[in-house]
Amino acid sequence: MVSFSGIDSSGKTTQINMLYDYCLKKGIRVKKIWGKARGTPGILLVKSIVRRDRKMNFEQKMSYRDQIYKSTVKKKLLLIASILDLCWYFGIYYRFLDFFNTVLICDRYIWDTYVELKTEFSGIEIDRWPLWKFAVSVSPKPETSFVFTITAEESLKRDKEKNEAAPDSLNIKKAKISLYMDLMEEGKWTHVMDGLKPIDEIHKSILEALSIEN
Fold first, then answer.
1. How far apart (Å, rounded) are the C-alpha atoms in residues 155 and 177?
2. How many CB atoms within 10 Å of residue 145?
3. What is the DSSP string of 119-173?
4. Quick one: pLDDT band at residue 118, thresholds 50, 70, 90?
5. E strands, the chain, in order
6. What is the mean pLDDT of residues 6-29?
7. Widest CA span in the chain
8. How far apart, in whole angstroms, are the C-alpha atoms of residue 147 and residue 191?
9. pLDDT for residue 6 is more than 60
10. Taking residues 23-50, what's their average pLDDT?
11. Which residues, at least 6 apart from 93, have a Cβ–Cβ distance to it below 8 Å?
């Protein structure tokens, strides 16, 4: 099990696809999966049933979302539901995939989820929630984990080059980077990768870290 973390446009997807293709060429049984809070299957199903913004344009959706987030009760209920869904998704489904694959590539994982939740639900200290601690404890720990670092300015520049529909603002990116830096100091990942280095050089370092022959 190997995880790739970092803010948007830090180079994760490129390296994930390179590693995935490499494993296929080598005949290694591999699976890649994406997951973070509010993007798990259970939450997406609930959203598809209860949300009222499916026919709204982008601006209307943002306004609808802001109205929900103004309610402390609704925010906490959404947060609780998101974390509960993570417990089975990471804690059970990921273990199942890990058992049946030689390499399980996780595109974002538990600490990316933490960064997203801390940014989106500012003012709510999920660190102290027993439910969050439980979600962390049941999530399998990757044998190797990478976090990619780039500046907020470079991330925003790459977002624009890719024509991202709704990229984070510069201030939000800086806030997320600050959270990632705190987590790095706590040793949440086995490898810190400079997202500004050449793509092939990063790929080679990843293969070396995974002890896969290049």
1. 10
2. 21
3. HHTTT--GGG-HHHHHHHHHSPPPSEEEEEE--HHHHHHHHHHTT-SSPPPHHHH
4. very high
5. 2-5, 30-34, 103-107, 144-149, 191-194
6. 95
7. 53
8. 7
9. yes
10. 82
11. none
